[in-house]
Design brief:
Blueprint: E1 4-11, H1 16-26, E2 33-39, H2 45-57, E3 61-66, H3 70-82, E4 87-89, H4 92-102, H5 118-132, E5 147-152, H6 157-166, E6 171-176, E7 193-198, H7 201-215, H8 221-224, H9 226-242, E8 247-249, H10 255-270
Parallel strand pairs: 1-2, 1-3, 3-4, 5-6, 5-7, 7-8
């Protein structure tokens, strides 16, 4: 039986960066059992002392941290060493290497990436736009979108749209329903990136059955019927190919992977 580790994620900001890095790290180890505790906005030695004290109460504790203020990062590293708690700084060496490369001193300011600049407001605007246009709710201003996603139910349209919005892309997603055509008046300008999402019908059937079970709705037979789903997916492929829209198969792909493919398509379209 594998040992279970208690992983303490310590950040002087929101902890988002550290959490993403940890997700990537743990995915490389198939037999890594852990319990995760997150500590955000850690900016004093007293806070660090409390975390170290907690680590000492539990076996197999380890610390991963992103603290940019040099003195505080050193304090955490020293206290961990004194108490024999494994401790790994994620940004330290990287900031130092960049500082040498750019020949300038790092500002060592927590949350420096969260600046209220034009990019920040662009992201907020994109998120508001995307939420207002989710699931085909509003399509009269479709040409204001940067990205339009089309796909049958359960092809990750909404989470992918929200992910793209967080990257500053105004996104509309439109569901494709069996035997229902998309509105004929829809016309996309050349700057709008239209993408079709598909998935394996059997996988879709499983996901839909689970959804129906949770909703306790037994009336939607066609929604979970494999033959109907196969037709839905086939019809959507025909539509995408007819309009020369790029197609992404989201089967067993994470939202991040799907979004990365979309960003690549946007980049290619821009450079044409």
């Amino acid at each position: 039986m594998n040992e279970k580790y208690n992983v303490y994620l310590v950040s002087d900001s929101t902890g988002e960066t550290l959490d993403r890095i940890f997700l990537s790290l743990k995915s490389q180890f198939a037999n890594f059992e852990y319990e995760k505790k997150e500590f955000a906005f850690v900016r004093t030695e007293q806070q660090i002392d409390k975390i170290i004290k907690e680590c000492l109460k539990i076996q197999n504790s380890l610390i991963l941290y992103t603290i940019v203020e040099t003195k505080l990062a050193k304090y955490l590293s020293n206290q961990s060493e004194i108490n024999n708690v494994p401790c790994f700084g994620i940004l330290g060496n990287l900031i130092l290497s960049f500082s040498k490369l750019l020949n300038q001193k790092a500002i060592h300011k927590p949350s420096a990436q969260h600046v209220l600049d034009d990019d920040y407001y662009k992201r907020i605007e994109a998120i508001q736009f995307t939420m207002a246009h989710d699931d085909g709710k509003k399509i009269d201003d479709i040409n204001a979108a940067d990205v339009v996603l089309l796909g049958v139910s359960r092809t990750s349209k909404t989470p992918t749209s929200i992910y793209l919005a967080n990257r500053g892309f105004k996104t509309i997603n439109i569901p494709l329903v069996l035997d229902q055509k998309i509105p004929e008046h829809l016309s996309f300008n050349k700057n709008t990136c239209v993408i079709g999402l598909i998935a394996d019908p059997e996988r879709l059937a499983d996901i839909r059955r689970n959804r129906v079970a949770i909703m306790r709705d037994q009336k939607i037979k066609e929604y979970t019927d494999l033959v109907s789903i196969k037709k839905e997916v086939e019809d959507s492929k025909i539509l995408f190919k007819k309009n020369n829209w790029p197609i992404i198969d989201v089967t067993r792909r994470s939202v991040e992977e799907t979004a990365a493919s979309i960003l690549k398509i946007i980049e290619i379209k821009k450079n044409k």
